């Protein structure tokens, strides 16, 4: 029995090594790397990931191949980051949860930090955004390749919400990020952190009353089937980062690492164009499901979070907060 188990383990190991060390047409070894994310295959994240994989293989002449694993196949956000730190995950798309690993990222999650999409782009694609990624790499061992844009986060509910007062008693799913939790408390809601994979069923069964996400994210998860209102709060202009394990990066040749960086930039442009095209289709999907779109006075919500934003800015990084604010003064 023992010998059979040993044989089986050896067989599995051999299969794994064969899978991870494929060869190119000229006989050179192919590095097979894994990219994970939490979205389904219809989402722009996945399509952008496939474009990145295609570009990496093309630019390295097949010496590096990226396999894409959607729908949390490799784990939720936290699992993906931890995997990159130890080298079991090579790439991932991760949004605000990165703030749990490098605290200054929490500043970017403050509601109404950015005034609009142009404000966000000015920061993430400028020197300050690059500096933030460099500091994250030094602290965490995770390398930021590119910021990918997302549509603004909006609220969906089963109760009409037109002002912060209407949020009283509403249980809203939020990511497990302090800035999100405290922000929604300040706006009057009862925030409930949970993994996004649990949101649909939790809305369906009444565990939560509402959730907030970019519209294309919401629609691709079919949230319109279990919510009645789309409330246009624009409370966060956000991003997702294409991240890479620095352990993996250091194992690439110089030519391969340059190819990965080039592919990341091209995939960013591809995804950014795609995500806003898909936002229009997502809004139509909401309307087709008889979801009512509610326009609100966003200043009422902005004013509700100012005190908590100032408090959290002192905790996470006043200098970064003030730098971002000064870009719109």
UniProtKB/TrEMBL annotation:
InterPro entries: DctP_fam, TRAP_DctP, TRAP_DctP_sf. GO terms for biological process: transmembrane transport. The keyword Signal applies. It comes from the Bacteria. Keywords: Signal. The keyword Signal applies. GO terms for cellular component: outer membrane-bounded periplasmic space. Pfam families: DctP (PF03480). Residues 1-18 form the signal peptide. GO terms for molecular function: carbohydrate binding. PANTHER family: DICARBOXYLATE-BINDING PERIPLASMIC PROTEIN, PTHR33376. This is C4-dicarboxylate ABC transporter substrate-binding protein. The lineage of its organism: Bacteria, Bacillati, Bacillota, Bacilli, Bacillales.
